[in-house]
Amino acid sequence: xxxxxxxxxxxxxxxxxxxxxxxxxxxxxxxxxxxxxxxxxxxxxxxxxxxxxxxxxxxxxxxxxxxxxxxxxxxxxxxxxxxxxxxxxxxxxxxxxxxxxxxxxxxxxxxxxxxxxxxxxxxxxxxxxxxxxxxxxxxxxxxxxxxxxxxxxxxxxxxxxxxxxxxxxxxxxxxxxxxxxxxxxxxxxxxxxxxxxxxxxxxxxxxxxxxxxxxxxxxxxxxxxxxxxxxxxxxxxxxxxxxxxxxxxxxxxxxxxxxxxxxxxxxxxxxxxxxxxxxxxxxxxxxxxxxxxxxxxxxxxxxxxxxxxxxxxxxxxxxxxxxxxxxxxxxxxxxxxxxxxxxxxxxxxxxxxxxxxxxxxxxx
Length: 364
Ligand code: SF4
Description:
364 residues, globular, binds iron/sulfur cluster
């Protein structure tokens, strides 16, 4: 398979079929273009294009430059990211912006190696920024690209093996045309996202490579990429407590490390506890419970674990002023919670209870 058979058909296809995405706007200033590519690529990790679009537009409106990003208060940043999940991505963006402002004269590095020194930027994002914004010959190989390339070449190596990924990165770099590096990377990603798709049969009839693709010739496209069996997720049972005093709801800040670090949440306890145990926990905080209601259970799936949530909604007597609560939980009203405290989507089954008017009459 010659590079010329691969490159020209792919770029021609891309020119005709690329989606109109907000981060693909033609921006003359390479630094501004790099900023947009960077934010979009970080948002797109683990998140669908359609879901990212409104977040991207809002983020750029509120934080249009690296400088603004470096100065944004943490809580405001978390609100901008609320619902996207994997919040460490946002924290790393701010940290990297700080490094760019303090150590790099406010300039985003143009080359792959220097980009890789910034927080949260791995090989894929470094390759995307340096090739798309600065025209550098750097590969941007993610799951989409691994799938497309292993199908094209009928490569049955195990793609989760770092050595295999390195080999595919080298191959992509070899194919990459000097004058359109960024477009070539984007075309590979686009083909993987819209034609050579991960779930179900790829749309080979629409593919610019259908005449040369080895997996297509063999008729076994979906045998690639070959991946090791995934480890089973750990299931963690827990009980979520929606504690309300008639006007406000109790929330709590998570630890600054680990899963959903530093975000706000409804108080929760490990395991599935009874309503009596939930009430005695509330009493231990120095609050006086009036009613308890069991809510529908829910489940949230992270990449490596699964929360199996049972929940109670508990009304406590009115004078629940902050000073009377033991521990670091505190009461907030609906508006305050929505404006200032990002509650991760893992709790989305219960965030509606922040608006207490939607609850049963006895809670109003
Ligand atoms: Fe993927 Fe089919 Fe194109 Fe091969 S021909 S790269 S399997 S879409």
